[in-house]
Amino acid sequence: xxLRTLVKKNRAAARLAYAxxxxxxxxxxxxxxxxxLDPEKIxxxxxxxxxxDNPRAIADYLRxxxxxxxxxxxxxxxxxxxxxxxxxxxxxxxxxxxxxxxATAGAWxxxxxxxxxxxxxxxxxxxxxWHGDKFLKKIANDARKDMKAYRRGMAARKFCEPELCxxxxxxxxxxVPIAASAFGYRGAFLRCGMPRNDxxxxxxxxxxxxxxxxxxxDREVRVLIYAPTFRDYERTHDSVPxxxxxxxILDALERKHGCRWMCLMRAHDGKTLTVxxxxxxxxxxxxxxxxxxxxxxxxxxxxxxxxxxxCGADFALTGKPVLLYQDDFARxxxxxxxxxxxxEESPYYTAANMEEALEIIRGIxxxxxxxxxxxxxxxxxxxxxxxxxxxxxRVILSALQSIRESQEGKG
Length: 411
Hints:
Layout (H helix, E strand, L loop, with lengths): L2 H7 L1 H21 L6 E8 L7 H13 L4 E6 L12 E5 L3 H9 E6 L14 E4 L11 H5 L3 H7 L6 H4 L2 E4 L4 H9 L4 E4 L6 H4 L3 H10 L7 E5 L19 H12 L3 E5 L19 E3 L6 H6 L3 E4 L4 H5 L6 E4 L3 H7 L13 E3 L2 H10 L2 H14 L8 H23 L1
Parallel strand pairs: 1-2, 1-4, 2-3, 4-5, 5-6, 6-7, 8-9, 8-11, 9-10, 11-12, 12-13
Helix pairs in contact: 1-2, 2-4, 3-17, 11-15
């Protein structure tokens, strides 16, 4: 048993690991607190998957409009460095270089919680963008309350966001009480939408063509994306215990629309997505788990199949068909996570088996799909603007200007 597994399975080991990490983080940040804040520097943090999610959308906007800024990207390892574009400095999370950049950056933007022990200096801005805001499955403290597999790994974890965060970002009113119950956060919100979803609200056809070309997709082929979430009770995030037969689904789509379809398969966090039916042997399938930004993949897709992931609500912004395949619902909610709302209240098209899935696919029209997407967005009280990156950047630039003026005043 390795150290990481021990920590996940043993509460005492988890408490000790978190306590040691907290002390280490605080000590490292104090080491650099004598250095001045840099009013031109912004640190972005995304632990896994490389350059993507909400931090990417904000960084892209700032990089394109304010090239004089110093952008730093913190990620989970050097293997992700290749995804970070020129002009942005990549650093390894919790390395000495990371702590120096974190201690001196005028603003932080993260898509997940920062570790306890993180110290924010006076004048620094911290915006928490989270990696979703329209959930099905419970998260953080909400999941810890009623789920053994999650509770073991989270036994000693604490969230620093209630004390450090200046803003939580959201694209729906539904998320506001969730932030309070899941993270203990009762501070201010930026109600402007999720930056990663800007491209789904205002689609850039030239960007779509470039992404499709990079993936080797012909212009005329339609795209199904299959993106299930992880199972806390499984040892891997890339294996999904499901009887879904994606080849049969592609066959049904091709017969219905009279054209070719491809399926992009994306694991939540793994190397390769594995399902019971051996889809990878079919030339119509492509694994895109390593692709750094899910928003790009949603933007070029014509249909989404997921299960308990918030990507379904994001995809609803496109007005295209969303199907949740939940053949393991009883097991998932018993051994995994419970949901935020009863299944019968779900606004989604939901299938419990292949026959139900095929019936929905054969029967749904384009107008049905658009109406269903409207119901999903209304359910969450969504207010995605398509300009979230710009709105968040304006707040960041204002904070940096305040630091600049403060330093000039002292000088």
